[in-house]
Structures are given as C-alpha cells and as structure tokens.
Amino acid sequence: MRKLILNLSFGILAALAYTSYALAAFLPPICQKFEGTLTLSIDPACQILTRSDTRIYFPDLLLPNGLSQFLGVPGTCFTGAITNGELDNRPVIGTSYSGQTTHNLESPAQFSAATTLILTNQNGSPIGNIYFRDAGLFTDGAGSVREQLVVVGANGLFWGVKGTVQIAGNEFTGAPVTGQFCR
Predict the structure, then answer these.
(1) Cβ 149 vs Cβ 164: under 8 Å
(2) In the beta sheet, which residues pair with residue 150?
(3) 2-52: pLDDT as tens digits
(4) Are 181 and 163 in contact (CB under 8 A)?
(5) Considering the entire predicted model, what is its pTM?
(6) What is d(CA 39, CA 82) in angstroms, rounded to the nearest whole number?
(7) What's the CA gap between 167 and 173, in Å, rounded?
(8) Ordered domains of the chain (ranges, CATH)
(9) Which of 135, 173, 133 has the alpha carbon at shortest distance from 38?
(10) How many CA atoms lie within 13 A of 96 on its CB side?
(11) Residue 78 belongs to what H/E stretch?
C-alpha cells in the first residue's frame, strides 16, 4: 500500500510539472512600448567600428582580417541621442551608434545599417543594450526618412527580447521613434 501511495504521489507530481511546463509555452508575450525623439549627429570616428560589442552582435559586418562591411566613409556613421524617451511610460535615456552598410543614392534613396542602442534610466544606471538591423528610405530632399529597425540581439534587462522600432522624420533635427520589445 505504501508503495502504491508513493507511486501515485510521484505520478501526480510529474503530471502537475508537465502541465505547468506545457501551459508556460502558451503564455502571451510580455511587451514594452518604447518611444522618444531621436537626434542624430555624423560620427567622423565611426565608433560603431571600434565598439567591442559590434564584433559580438554584428559578426558578419566586421571580418577577422580587419575589413568591414560598414561603408565607413564620411557621412555614413552616426551617433544619436534619444530624448523624451519612455519605456512602458517610464523615462529612459538613449544613446545610439550606427553605421550604414549599403546606400543607394538613386531616387528614391534607400539604405541599410546596423545600430547599437544603449538605454539607461533617469539616474544613468544601465538598463541594457539593443542591437538592430535597419532599412530605410529617404522620403524627400530635406532629409526626412522612414526607417524600420529590427532587433537582432540584446543584453542586460533586454536579454532575449524581440521587436521593432520605427523612425519617421528628419533624424538630424529630431524624429519621433516608436516601437515595442517583447519576450
């Protein structure tokens, strides 16, 4: 009888463990809304080429022989500041480093890039970095763009997130940024 009770107990525990594991696979994702204003500056030093995390998150863009898939010519690398940033209605500060990987100057002008976004809270404490591949289109001669950034990696509190960010407007004078990160 004792053996039967033990076997039954272990069977029930195993069934409960399996059920909770199976149900966890169907939980809805937890998503965080991200928004702010991005202002870019040309980065003559092309810092994305020298950041240590670039080699980790964009290995195909920095080759072992030192060559780069980044254009790396003047006017194709940028630093950015996210102002009025919010992550789920909580204030954040963002700094970005990016470099174009292609640039078609024909009309309509299109480009692709890779971007590292570093987010901190209001006190300057790091939240994490998010790494994107970008595709964009210049929409007018005044420098306005429509750009889509897709998450390809992340660290810190963003480890494992997926998501996208959209930018529309002139990034050099300040363009709205909206997006969502989910896990």
Answers:
(1) yes
(2) 133, 164
(3) 554 545 555 565 555 555 454 455 677 899 999 999 999 999 988 988 888
(4) yes
(5) 0.80
(6) 7
(7) 13
(8) 28-182 (2.40.350)
(9) 173
(10) 28
(11) strand 77-87
